[in-house]
Amino acid sequence: MTWPVILKLDSAAYSLSAVQRTAYALADTVAIQIGIEADQISLTAFPAKTKVMLPQEQAHSLILQHLNDFALRDHINRETAGLREVLARAALAGCGVSR
Amino acid sequence: MLRKDTHFEIQYLNEPKLLKVITLDEFIEQGVAVCAGATQFNDLLLWLPSEDLERNPHLVSLPVGGFLTPESLTSPFDNGRLHLHSPKNPDVVQPGDVIAITPGNTLVRVLYRRGSDSNLLFMTDRCNSLCLMCSQPPKDIDDRWHIEENLRLIDLMDAGEENLGISGGEPTLYRDGLLEILAKCKTVLPQKSVHVLSNGRLFKDPSWIAALAALGHPQLSWGIPLYADNAVDHDHVVQAPGAFSETVQGLYNLARANQIIEIRVVLSRLTTPRLPELAHYVFRNLPFVRHVALMGIESTGLARKHYEELWIDPLDYQEALSQTAYFLFNRGMPVSIYNLPLCLIPPHLSRFARQSISDWKNLFIDTCQQCAAVKHCSGFFKSHTDRWQSRGVRQLSTEAFSAYARSAQ
Amino acid sequence: MRGFAVTLIATDANSYRLLPFRFMRLNTANDCDILLTSDTGEYLYVNDAQLRALSYFDIEAGTSFYKDLLARHFIYEPTRHDPFPEMAAQYRSRKDFLFQGPALHLFVVTLRCNHTCQYCQVSRAPLGGSGHDLSEADALAAVDRLFESNAPALTVEFQGGEPLLAFERVRQIVEWVAARNLVEQRDIQFVITTTLHHLTDEILDFAKQHSIQFSTSLDGPAPLHNANRPTPSRDSYERTVEGIKRVREHLGHDAVSALTTLTSRSLEQPEAIIDEYVKQGFSSISLRPLSPYGFASKSAHRLDYPIEQYLTFYTKALTYLLKINQQGTYLSESYTSLLLKNILTPFSSGYVDLRSPAGAGTAALVYNYDGYVYPSDEARMLLEMGEDGLRLGTVQHPLSELLASPVMETLLASGVAEALPGCSDCALVPYCGADPVEHYARQGDPIGHRLFSSFCKKNMGLLKHLFALLRDGDDNVQRVLLSWLNRRSYSDVRFPGYRG
Predict the structure, then answer these.
(1) Could you tell me if residue A97 is inside a domain?
(2) What is the pTM assigned to this prediction?
(3) Within the 1-30 window of chain C, which residues sit less than 8 Å (CB to CB) from chain B?
(4) Radical SAM core domain: which residues (chain B) (predicted)?
(5) Contacts of residue C449 in chain A, CB cutoff 8 Å?
(6) What is the DSSP string of C258-283?
(7) Which residue range(s) make up the domain with B360?
């Protein structure tokens, strides 16, 4: 085990779900431990088995990019909440698939 | 170009009439059966050149609605029956045609021309849109009488398989009348394919689905204009807020009724900048569309008034036209270019160009006279003026035209 | 579209609102590196600034970008136009396959085979083996199941082993189906998947009578094909090529198509494989990676390869295909054509592996030689490996029971890509599918983890490559791809037209 990348995130800026999805999306690159403390989410990342040569700064910026992308997806999903389901229901009425 | 009206001298006309012009041979061989629908002898107007009249003066006792002599009478003739003669233009009315005449008026209108593919049932002058380039500005009048006239006209037509158009104004404004006419076309003129021009807005009402499905006309198609891939631009062109939404919903309802749909786009300064995007929108959202017609503008009616807003030299939208036509063609959606002379499109688009202008308003200008492409070209509308003429109008040499001909294969 | 009563109404002063969309970074050098996609398959390439502006209501109305977003249903103007009818129509076109029952019915008439391929996807039985053929009673029941599907167009495919070794059963089934169809009036296509080594004039005459298509395997030039497909006489290639010739002479050029199996050996020679297909006069080639089934997993150490190696191979092969197509040889790659249909049209290819909900069972059914019914060819291969968890029941159960089986429930519960971890945020999900059987085979779990999924890596790799080509490829590359879309000649697609 080499470096960890440690981030303390304001939970008003990043949802737990965004952090979890980041951990999922980077699972082949870094192994991430997530902790919750009051209004902060902590994130500790270690290089994955096959990525021990990954420089720490690169891992850092990769994690941040994913966090920000997932935070943006959160925002988009909030703005469009419910529409996807209504669309699928309207479009698929009569095909026998209930979603 | 052969006009659809001319003046005759008319004797003994007491009421407005719709009459089928018929030759003596046809009258003898077929009688009223020359017409597709139910008719009587007095709906017929016997074609009687002076020569025949002089040779067989007793013909005027035949039990028909009247007589038409396509030239001046050599000697005065008066037997107290309806007689049309001395036409200003003798070519306009021919045997087989259906004409309309009214008392006190020397104008003879040809409502049906035998063998022509441009015959039209005109439904109304009314419209719920006010398109900037409208070639026939709408009038706010009650002209329901067109319905009766068209029903009558259908009876008097030939039964042949030419195309028949239905247009306005907005034909769907007289919903019941239109449905009645379409039903009659199906029964009386089963060989004719019928193409209705409509802005499609009223089809937003889903009750049309059942009505059209019940009609079940096998050769009916709808030409619906769509001028943009977004509501703001489309609504501006048709000068009607909400029109885009209504037309789009109307198109879906027509599709639900399994109707054959053509999208028509009039090319102007307003519609060409996003023409490829419009094609994208049509293909993605309306893939059931059977044909897209990209149409050069007709410089008449309201279009003249909005010259500044509408005019763009076709040379300046060649690229957009090419992008659009090939986008659709490559995705298997049939596409045509209407009303643009061949000299204004690049050779590689000639495969899409059609001779689209109705015979009665088609014009070839002086430049066209020596052009090698003239027999294959759409030419111009009779309303064409210098102000609406592209800087690219030119004669194509035989060599230049061969590139177009090769490309069209 | 009936029965939904949602009116889209603005909740604040913004002139536009967002519609559901996903985004993905393509990691290319292009300035517009982010791919936006809607659930209905519309897409747009944007840059970071545009994505932010879009998401935070900062796009200026009236600009062409604003109109693009409106027209492709990424945003809408609540006071101006309700895009729901269009979106619902698009969604329905894309999921149209849901409105039909299974259309592909595979009959495994025997497991016997004359080949001893190391990678064989199905375990096989020796030529003279017994107890490895579909019984008459089971075959008859399977025909009943076939017609219980409401699909108007049905494909009846005969598989093995080598199905021509059980030709009498094939003949029986075809005749039963044809007789039933006099009443049923479906559009039925018969296909026999075969090495063509056991063709006879009798078989060819019968095939002609019933317009039967042949699907064979051709792995490349003779040395590669024969190394991949050992037979005692070491002439698999020669006999297959001879078979192709005979089928064409009897039934016409297009009566036979071929599939390629790619071993690690094959990955070194994309051009030689393609040249072989050109030489044999095929108009399509199918470059599919090895599946983790049958004997393939057991000999994985020798024959299997990481999916990344396949992607490198695919890129090389596609580049070469694009080149020869531009030189006037029409040869399309069939999986690419399916993906292009998903990307470039409002429709779905309907291909079993590219469906969500998953196509296993809903699109295809396999009637195994032993009378059991499986949701896919791959699911029955798991059985031959010793996994018996994925059968739906026996051919004696009615279709409704088979499709309501616990296995189908599990597959469907993990078969909706839009709802799966990883997939639900992926911008490529409208063009992709869910393959729970594959994930079960590879990861021991029908959902699996996307980051370690070769299904995911393959489809992501291919789709990203195609999206980059569609954006950056020159006009002639576009022309080839478009010619594959509608199977038109390259010269007929004279200009690519608007790229969309």
Answers:
(1) no
(2) 0.94
(3) 1
(4) 123-258
(5) 24, 27
(6) EEEEE-TTGGG-HHHHHHHHHHTT-S
(7) 119-407
